Amino acid sequence: MSESPRILLVEDEPGLQLTLSDRLRREGYVVDTAGDGQTGLDKAATGEFDLVLLDVMLPRKNGFDVLRDLRQRGLETPVIMLTARSQVVDTVVGLKLGADDYLAKPFEMMELLARVEARLRRRTTPPASTPVSEGYQFGDVRVDFRSAEVFRGPDTIELSAREYQLLRYLIEHRNDVISRDQLLNEVWGYNAMPSTRTVDVHVAWLRQKIEPNPRHPQFLLTVHGLGYRFVG
Question: What are the E-state strand segments in 11-148?
């Protein structure tokens, strides 16, 4: 077995599939391809890949459906969505279904490679040292760092892995003003791209789950022009 990261590229445009797979192989990755959504799902579901590059507009099964099915099967393989769509609503749909990143066509090859490298680095890098405390409470919300669970009273608050990582990072840096660039670098593992709204989308989702009144947050605050601050 090769020690090189294995990438599955699900893309139905033959020219782009060839261009991307050749470049990724030159970068040292082991690349497999699929030209339609169903084949991509079947291959990705084996769990043999370290990363999936997934187009949205695919024959047989679109990329959103492929991603949804993967997550419903419990597959946590990182997925970067590739699509000609650039509307915010499509970005939100992809992220909400469990995508780790989203890149709209046309994109620069160097940007794709940077995101691939960063995503794989986050997968293989050991997590940062745990905080001194094994848990933290703010308001009626309790975070257990040992089990990576969040509770409101006796009830579990269902957070995605990324939402939990974001909340934990903010708690560990509470009262500090954290820029979007810093959050992208530390939580997502790549430097900020000018068009990304990933942080804002996830902050909005997190507020819906942890704030008594998400429209008027009291814990996860926006510092206009600078970023966010957690004051729980």
Answer: 30-34, 51-55, 79-83, 101-104, 135-138, 141-144
Which residues does residue 138 pair with via DSSP β-bridges, in sequence order? 141
| Burial class for 20, CB neighbours closer than 10 Å (0-12, 13-18, 19+) | buried
pLDDT digit string, tens, across residues 139-185: 889 898 888 889 988 889 998 888 888 999 999 888 888 888 888 88
33 secondary structure, DSSP code: E
Angle at 102 between CA 212 and CA 217, to 5 degrees: 15
Q: Which amino acid is at 83?
A: T
Q: Are 178 and 128 in contact (CB under 8 A)?
A: no
Contact predicate 60/36, CB 8 Å: yes
Q: Give the pLDDT of residue 89.
A: 58
Long-range contacts of 16-22 (CB under 8 A, 24+ apart): 20/53, 20/112
Residue 104 has a pLDDT of 81
CA 128 to CA 168: how far, in whole Å?
11
Identify the pLDDT of residue 98.
79
End-to-end CA distance of the chain: 47
- Residue type at position 217: P
Contact by Cβ (8 Å): 167, 143: yes
CA separation (Å) from 88 to 81, 85, 195, 197, 198?
13, 9, 10, 8, 10
SS3 47: coil
